[in-house]
Design goal:
The protein is an all-alpha fold. It is built from six helices and no strands. The protein is globular and about 35 Å long. 29% of the residues are buried.
Amino acid sequence: MDLDAFERSFGEATPPGGLPPLLVALWLEARGEWHRAHELAQAEDGADAAWVHAYLHRVEGDEANAGYWYARSGRSHSTAPLIEERRQIARELLGRD
């Protein structure tokens, strides 16, 4: 799946089958389901999970908490527009699939 197909799926009732949890979290957030997205990100480990977690706290408006998760991810605190950061994360995660 590429980024365009991923973004087109936001209009569907359910996420595309076979998506890993972090991409499902981004899918949920894009549809306004922040709490469910956060639960998924929080349940995962590793740098990618920390990056998604950081992004979600930026969406929430909690920059201090986002900063903590960016540090755990090994990435700089993003100042990109939120949609651009979501696209960057999704593009990178989709590229690993």
